[in-house]
């Protein structure tokens, strides 16, 4: 096959009409996707992260998604990088540029390219499938390694830097940006960076001399990421926990939650040491299993520590009995569930929202649990510390449900705000308080279902109590009396109702007169935001309510009542959130319809658009107006379009008329109770 360009393709055709901005000369700048196909365990993550971070530092909005197998080494892995000048971060269903460095999957990978796509591949391969509508670039990897002077096992791990250098030339990524990115990734280790850059430069210079960039895709500097940060959701969660005052964590390793504790260990080592002695003022324990881990944090919570664990679905299954103890004995704890695909072992390295129903009711008997539902890095951080305040205030385990996509992939964000309020420890009595007012551990003195508690170390003789998982009266004395049981369960229900006013309210973006409502949560947000803009471009108006927590409050029922149809969009098979909403809001349940997808991949805007259009079945629409801002300060914007809706018309076209509005929802969201 030889080196260099193999076959020139016809002009690129956008696989997604709503994506891409073509210049007058046909060049598509900062609006396309790249997929890198390699084998797991070959060191490709560093190469991929170097490209992602270099683009980010060029000011281009980007998002990276690692689609990796559940093994240590050898199986196929794909890394998706999306560039979007408009800042969209959802996964796209196709990528225009393929880096084919896995011979095992090259046949299927090339078939995924749209017409006009390009393919970089290892020139050392003997053959590669041919398509007349794809441009091929052969990259002589072994030649680059030889010319860079790399030897031994190091050369195997640096071979992926060959495609970094070639791609940098073809897309016009400055080498200094790649150098900066590697310096960040290797924490300032100049020697390691130089080894990687040696291969990058050889590949770049070879590409400049031998490859003709016969394709329309280019990058150019922008200013859209200035002041932003990039990290994973698991890192943001760990940092939030530090600001929330965590002093104890117990865990057992499980994908995709392990990096929560890895990051937590790093942050605590920097920020939680006695200034006089340098000794750690925290403890992180790797338990023998998830059952032991949750038992440890329940015990630590009883003792007054702010305690947490991080796990995924199989770990949650093992924790069920202890969670019930925490609920009934009323012990604060924080449990992060980074969701993956189940049931059973399932797909351990793919994303899902499959634990919502399970965690909401986790524990035998009548139990309901408080759940926080982050959708962004900022909310991972905010909920990271807020969860401890809620757990202490409500004296109960609090779940935070993230997922693999948010937790393990890199996202952009505004810098986090330093928490403005002190830690909220809830109703904790001192010895003086007990002396003044007495103490009955499970007595509801305030009518909100939340009793007062004492902590070990309180020296008043009446402060001690049994945190019972067995039947008890309001003084924590063992009891099997029916009235004691009935009263205690009624009080726990009142406490859960109190939680409705304490958890974060939903975020609402409502279009006046829109008949279509959408309810969603978590990482479906990027795809839904983009899909709504596409629908608006065709004059199809939608309103969105994004849940940030369970239990729900009255805003949710009112939102549903204001719309003829409300689609509940989520990443599971059975529409689990819809099940909860139907159970709790029977008067509006008939307006709800589930749009659920579970294939292990993050949602795309295309799927959301097509799912809504198919469900609508060509119903006529009028062109409504969008309410912007709070109810008091609302302004109306005319939306274009004739209001028609054609099922099967894959993707909407046209000018959305929303160029002055933030596609990512920051400018148009109204937080219920805050707007």
UniProtKB/TrEMBL annotation:
<dbReference type="GO" id="GO:0016903">
    <property type="term" value="F:oxidoreductase activity, acting on the aldehyde or oxo group of donors"/>
</dbReference>
<protein>
    <submittedName>
        <fullName>Ferredoxin oxidoreductase</fullName>
        <ecNumber>1.2.7.-</ecNumber>
    </submittedName>
</protein>
<dbReference type="GO" id="GO:0006979">
    <property type="term" value="P:response to oxidative stress"/>
</dbReference>
<dbReference type="InterPro" id="IPR002880">
    <property type="entry name" value="Pyrv_Fd/Flavodoxin_OxRdtase_N"/>
</dbReference>
<feature type="region of interest" description="Disordered">
    <location>
        <begin position="617"/>
        <end position="675"/>
    </location>
</feature>
<feature type="compositionally biased region" description="Basic and acidic residues">
    <location>
        <begin position="661"/>
        <end position="675"/>
    </location>
</feature>
<dbReference type="Pfam" id="PF01855">
    <property type="entry name" value="POR_N"/>
</dbReference>
<feature type="compositionally biased region" description="Basic and acidic residues">
    <location>
        <begin position="617"/>
        <end position="630"/>
    </location>
</feature>
<feature type="domain" description="Pyruvate flavodoxin/ferredoxin oxidoreductase pyrimidine binding">
    <location>
        <begin position="240"/>
        <end position="403"/>
    </location>
</feature>
<dbReference type="InterPro" id="IPR019752">
    <property type="entry name" value="Pyrv/ketoisovalerate_OxRed_cat"/>
</dbReference>
<dbReference type="Pfam" id="PF01558">
    <property type="entry name" value="POR"/>
</dbReference>
<dbReference type="InterPro" id="IPR050722">
    <property type="entry name" value="Pyruvate:ferred/Flavod_OxRd"/>
</dbReference>
<dbReference type="InterPro" id="IPR009014">
    <property type="entry name" value="Transketo_C/PFOR_II"/>
</dbReference>
<dbReference type="InterPro" id="IPR002869">
    <property type="entry name" value="Pyrv_flavodox_OxRed_cen"/>
</dbReference>
<keyword id="KW-0560">Oxidoreductase</keyword>
<dbReference type="InterPro" id="IPR022367">
    <property type="entry name" value="2-oxoacid/accept_OxRdtase_asu"/>
</dbReference>
<feature type="region of interest" description="Disordered">
    <location>
        <begin position="1"/>
        <end position="22"/>
    </location>
</feature>
<feature type="domain" description="Pyruvate/ketoisovalerate oxidoreductase catalytic">
    <location>
        <begin position="41"/>
        <end position="205"/>
    </location>
</feature>
<dbReference type="InterPro" id="IPR029061">
    <property type="entry name" value="THDP-binding"/>
</dbReference>
